[in-house]
Amino acid sequence: MLTDFAKAYLRISMSNILLTGGAGFIGSHIAVELRKAGYVPIILDNLSNSLDSAVDGISKITGRKEVLHNIDCRRENEVVDLIEKVGGISGIVHLAAFKAVGESVQNPSKYYDNNIGSMGSILRVAEKFCVEQFVFSSSCTVYGSPQEAEVTESTPMGNAYSPYGYTKQVGERMMIDLVKAGVKTKFVSLRYFNPIGAHPSAWIGEFPIGKPNNLVPYICQTSIGLRDELTVYGNDYNTRDGSCIRDYIHVCDIATAHVKALDYMLKPTAPQHDVFNIGTGKGNSVKEIIDTFKEVNEIEFKVIQGSRRPGDVAAIYANNQKAQSILGWHPEYTLADALKHAWNWQKTL
Questions:
Q1: Per-domain residue ranges for the chain?
Q2: Closest CA to 123 of 165, 173, 87, 157
Q3: Catalytic residue of the set 39, 143, 161, 164
Q4: Which of 96, 69, 101, 73 is nearest to 85 (CA)?
Q5: According to CATH, what is the number of the domain 4-195+250-279?
Q6: Does residue 274 carry a pLDDT above 70?
Q7: What sign does the CA torsion over 197, 261, 138, 21 have?
Q8: Across 197-289, where does the E strand assignment appear?
Q9: pLDDT tens, residue by residue, 184-220
Q10: Rounded Cα gap, residues 183 and 130, in angstroms
Q11: Which residues, 6 or more positions from 145, have their beta carbon under 8 angstroms from its beta carbon?
């Protein structure tokens, strides 16, 4: 029979979710959705690519005093100490990773050390605490350069076009190997497409450290005058207007997918490892994003043409039917919503 202390410990741990990278762009929005769903986000971030002020924004939205634990995931002993301090965890949402495709091409060792090293550490933590649910922040880059622009979860992983993409492939393989080795944790890989936007409240959003590596924050900084001009990389791809096509999805929709994944893994029928595409199900070109941003926000900025960028594929977008049918997840926000919210967030900075 469980003691009263053991029962209390179990109740606490059942709602605690370790959220690595929780002060980042996507992580901060996931923290909000976890609270909304009744989970307790244990926010861990070493602030290498984020700001501690994000936790203030999370707190404003949730109405609770959220706490940031400044720990590098690779410092396994410190992560273990944190989990013991908060009374245990039932699940992990692992986002902490470097994420710029171009930078990974220029500095691959940085990405291998951080992304694969932190994944190994957090997986060992999951084993130590017999964690029930583990959601991995994966990426559509695992598909490499697919033969068809629309990809399903059964589309084979191709040759990763960047070290960043390769680290995501390795992360997925690590979970599969643990399942084969008999680990009891259930795993879900969420393969994000291109997250954009910000919380509708404009209290949290994307805050790139230094020069933005992603399209929409660069558009925002150019629109507000922090950058002189925006460069479109490539105009000769085999697409409808010559620029790259991606599946741009609102960050709040990505956040809700994590809650759906956690709930899904509690079902006895859920397999021990599963994979879901998290995208809108349609692609937009870089030029279309620029034109839509200008239209919905009634603003102009300078755009110039550049050459192709290493690591980019021509076109890729999600078939999201599996996530809709199995997780019960559906994108709620439009492209126009995302671009309005991104601009509203930029104006607060």
A1: 4-195+250-279
A2: 173
A3: 164
A4: 69
A5: 3.40.50.720
A6: yes
A7: positive
A8: 230-233, 245-246, 248-250, 273-278, 284-285
A9: 999 999 999 999 999 999 999 999 888 898 999 999 9
A10: 8
A11: 158, 159, 161, 313, 314
pLDDT computed for residue 9 by the predictor: 46
Question: For the whole prediction, is pTM greater than 0.85?
Answer: yes
Tell me, yes or no, if 164 is annotated catalytic.
yes
What is the C-alpha separation between 60 and 66, in angstroms, rounded?
9
Pairwise CA distance, residues 283 & 280, whole Å = 8
Per the structure block, which two tokens stand in for 132?
């029930």
pLDDT band of residue 10 (cuts 50, 70, 90) is very low
**Torsion sign, CA atoms 321, 173, 131, 186:** positive
Cα 85 from Cα 20, distance rounded (Å): 16
- CA-derived radius of gyration, the chain: 20
Residues 260 and 17: their CA atoms lie apart, in Å, by 14
